[in-house]
Amino acid sequence: MYILETKDLNHDFSGLKVLFGVNLQVKHGERHAIIGPNGAGKTTLFNCITGTYKPSSGKVLFKGMDITGRTPHELTRMGIGRSFQITTIFMNLTVFQNVRLAVLSKRGIRFNLFRFVDKMKDITEETEEILRRVNLIEERDFPASALSYGKTRALEVALAFATDPELVLLDEFTAGMSRDETHAAVELVRKLTEGKTAVLIEHDMDVVFSLADRITVLHYGRIIASGTPEEVRSNQDVKDAYLGDLEV
Amino acid sequence: MDATTAMYVSQAIHGIAYGMILFLIASGLNIIFGMMGVLNLAHASFFMLSGYFCYQVLKLTGNFWLALLIAPLVTAIFGIVVERVFLRRMHAFGHLGELMLTVGISLVILAGVKFFWGTESLPIPVPEALQGLIKIFGLEYPIYRLFVIGLSLVVLLLMVLVLYKTRLGMIVRAAVSDRDMVNALGINIPLVFMVVFGIGCWLAGIAGVAIAPILTVFPGLADQVGMDAFIVVVTGGIGSLGGAFIVAIIFGFLSSFGIQFVSQLAPVLMVGFMALVLIIRPHGLFGVEE
Amino acid sequence: MKDKITKISLWLMVAMFLLAYPKLFGMYYVNLFVTFMVFAVFSLSFNMLLGFTGLLSFGHAIFFGISGYGTALALRHIEGIPLFPAIGLGVLAAVILAVVLCPVVVRVTGTAFAMVHLAFGQLMYVLALKLRNITGGEDGIGNFPIPNVSLFGLFSFPLKNNPVNFYYFALVILGICTWLMWFFTKTPFGQIQVGIRDNTKRIDYLGFKVPESKSVIYVTSAFFAGVAGSIYGLFHNLVSADGSLNVLVSFTAITATLIGGIGSFFGPIWGTAIFQILEELTIRFTEQVELVTGIIMIIVIMYAPRGFTGFLATLKLKWQLSRAKRRG
C-alpha cells in the first residue's frame, strides 16, 4: 500500500509536454527523494500532485483515494504539506505570526471573528513549541523579511510541517544554502520527518544520500529509475542519462 | 435613399468616429500598461491637455494642420517629462504608488488647465477644408467625421508598422504579451519606457486634437471621454490591443445609436455592457490573468 | 501595569475631549467633525481591503452610496419606520450588493480589481442619475423625514435640525464601528486576512479557502462603508449621486488612506484628519483645491510612501536608536 501514487501522469503547457506517464510510488513512512537534471519536470510533478496545476491526464492517489485536481487547501486539510523552492512565507508578519497561521489552520480555526487571537493561549503555546523545534524561537518576533536566508528557508519548511501533515513534499529545501546551513537544514528535516512520509526534490547528492530511503530519477519528464540509493547508484540507465554530470 | 437609412448611416459614421477616438486613447493606455505594468490614470488628462494645446496653437497661428502636428508632439514631450521626473523614480515601489501618482498628476493637470485657460468651454472651429457635408452615392456625410476616421486609420496603420516592423515594436509586443520578457530581453529599459510612454501620450494627443472641434475643449473633457476610454480598456481586457479595438467600436455604436433611440439611457448602455462582460469575464473580453 | 494606566488615562482624556467637543467649538466645527468621522470610518472600511488584504478598489463609494440611498428611500417611503431599521435597510442594501459582486471580484486582483470597481462605480453613478423616478436624478433624495433616536422606548431624542445631538449619535455609532473594525484585525480571521495580502498562495497551501475568505472580508468592508454612507445621508438629510456615488468619493478614501499610511489600522483616521485640515486651510487661501490635493498626493507617494503613520514609526525608530546610542 502506497501513501502517494501517481498513475500515468501527463502534463503539458499549451502543447509543451513536461511529464510523460509518470508512475511515482511513495511508501508509508519513507523519505523519498526525486532527483534529475534541471528541466526534468520535478517541480511540475509536485505542482500536479499538490493542486497548483491540474494534470493533463492521469491520476494522483493519496492513501488509495483519488485526489487528482483537488485544490491546495483541500489537500492540506487531508494531510499533505508542501514547501516551495521559491520561498513562500508571509514577509510582513513576524515569525510567530507566520507559524501561528498554520496552527490556526490545523485546528480548523478559520472564520473565527469573536476572539482576540493574541489571547488564545493554547494556540500561542503550540506555535512556540513548533518554533522551538525548528530553532526559530529566538527570532520569534522578527518580521520574516528580517531573517537570514537560512532562517527564511527554515521558516518555509516549518510552515510545511506546522499543519502536522502525514505527507510532506519539500521542493529543494536546501536551495542556495551554504555548507553549514545545509547541514543544519538536513538535521532539521531528519527530525521533523520522524514518523511522517516525505518526498524531497533535491539537487545536492550528499543531502539525497544522507536522507533518502528511496530515490526516483526523473529525466525529461520520465521516470528512468526508482529504488534504494544502492539500486539507483548502480543503475545503468541513470549512469547513461547523467553522462557523468553528477557523481552518482 | 430614404431618410431612415440616411439617419442610420450618419449615426454609424458618428459611432465609428467616436469609437476610433476611444481606441486611440485606449491603445496608448494599453501599450503603456503592457510595457510598464501601470495603468496611467493621467492618460485622459494628457488627451485633454492636447486639446488645450490645439486651442493655443490655433489662437496663435489659426492653422489647424499645424495644431494637429504640434499639439500631440508637445503632449508627448510633456508625458516624457512626467515619466522621467515622477514615474521612473516610483517604479521600484510597486504599482500602487505609480497608479496613485498618476492620479495626483491628473489632478495637477486639471488645476493647471483651469488656471491657464479658465473653466469655460472653448470652441475649436472645424477647419474650412473639412466643413460641411459630402455626397457619396446620394448620401450625405459630415466631412470632419470622415476625416477623423481616416486620420485614426492612418495613425493605426502607423502603429501597426511600428509594432510589427521595428525592433521597438517587437519589444513592445513581447512586453505586452508577457511582462517578464522585458527583463529577460536585456534591452535598455529606461529608454524604451520613455519612448513607449511618449508614443502613448502622442496617441492620446492625436485623439485630443481630433475630438476638439466635435466636443469643444473644457476641464471636464478628461473625465467625460477618459472614463469611456478606461471602460473600453477594462472591458476589452487590460493590455489587449485587439480587445480595445473591438470594444471601442462597439462603444462608439452604443453611444451614437443609444443617443438616437434611448437618449436618456445611452450612458447606461455602455456601462451595462461593460458590467455584463466583467461579470462573465472579470479580466475583460481578451484579458489574461496577471 | 504602568503602561496600562497611562493607556487608560489617555483614552479617558480622548473620550472626555470628544464629549466636550460641541461645548468647546462652534456649530461649524461640530459639523466638520461629523464629516470627519463619517469619512474616517469609510476610509477604515476601504483600508480593510487595501491595507489588510492588498485589494485596491476604485469604487468603494458604491457601498457608501447604495446604503445612503437605501436609508433615504426607506425613510421617505415607509411610513413611521424607526431610525435604526432604516439605517439597517441601507446597510443591508450595501451588503447584498457586495454579496452579488463577490463571485466576480474575488477572481481578480491588482489593477483589474481596481478597474472593475471603477467600472461598477460608474454603472451605479449613471444609474443613480438616470433612474429619476427612484433616485431623484441629479437632485437626489432630500429632506426626507428623520425619526428620533430611540431604543426600545428607553430614551428618545431628535436628530433633525439638531447638529449637537447628531454629533453624539454619529460619535456612538461610528465609534462602535471603528472598534469593531479594529477588533476584526485582531481576531484569528484578521490574521488570515493579512496572510492573504502577504502571500495568497501560502494561505491556500495552509488549508484556508482564499475566495471564501476574501468574500467575508469584502462583505464586511461593504457593511462598514454602508454604515458610514447611511449616516452621511442622514447628516445632510440628502443623498445624491454626486455626494455619495461619485468616483471622487472613492478617491477621498484612497487619498486619506495613502496620506495616513496603508500599513497601519489607524492610518486612515490620521489621513482623513490631515486631508480635511489641509482642505479647510486651502479653501481659505485659494480656489485651487485640486492642485493642492494633487501636489500633496505626489509628495506623499514619492517621499513618504508609508504615509503619516509610517513617518511617525520612522521617527520613533530613529529616536530609539539615538537613545540606545547615547546609553552606549
Pick out its properties.
heterotrimer, A: 248 residues, alpha/beta, Rossmann fold, six-stranded mixed beta sheet, five-stranded antiparallel beta sheet, 9 helices, C: 328 residues, mainly alpha, two-stranded antiparallel sheet, 4 strands, 2% strand
Number of domains of chain A: 1
* Rg of chain C, Cα atoms, Å: 21 Å
Assembly context of the chains: heterotrimer
Order of helices and strands of chain A: EEEEHEEHEHHHEHEHEEHH
User: Can you tell me the residue ranges of chain A where pLDDT is under 50 for at least 5 consecutive residues?
Assistant: none
Described by strand count, sense and barrel closure, the largest sheet of chain A is: 6 strands, mixed
Structure summary, number of beta strands of chain C: 4
- Helix vs. strand class of chain C: mainly alpha
What distance separates the N and C termini of chain C? Answer: 28 Å
As a whole number of angstroms, the C-alpha radius of gyration of chain A is 18 Å
The CATH topology of chain A corresponds to: Rossmann fold
Plain-language structure description:
- With 248 residues, chain A is an alpha/beta fold.
- Chain A has helices spanning 42-49, 72-78, 95-106, 121-133, 149-162, 179-192, 205-211, 229-233, 236-242, and strands at 2-13, 16-22, 25-27, 31-35, 57-62, 65-66, 80-83, 167-171, 197-201, 214-219, 222-227.
- In chain A, a hairpin with a 2-residue loop joins strand 5 and strand 6.
- Chain A starts with a strand and ends in a 6-residue tail after the last helix.
- By secondary structure, chain B is mainly alpha-helical.
- Chain B has 11 helices and 2 strands; from the N terminus they run H-H-H-H-E-E-H-H-H-H-H-H-H.
- In chain B, helix 1 (3-36) packs parallel to helix 5 (143-165) and helix 10 (241-261) runs antiparallel to helix 11.
- Chain C contains 15 helices and 4 strands.
- The B-C interface holds B 33, 38-39, 86, 89-90, 93, 95-97, 99-101, 103-108, 110-112, 114-115, 227, 230-231, 233-235, 238, 264-265, 267-268, 271-272, 274-275, 278-279, 282-284, 287, 290 and C 56, 104-105, 107-112, 114-116, 118-120, 122-123, 126-127, 130, 251, 254, 258, 262, 288, 290-291, 293-298, 301-302, 305.
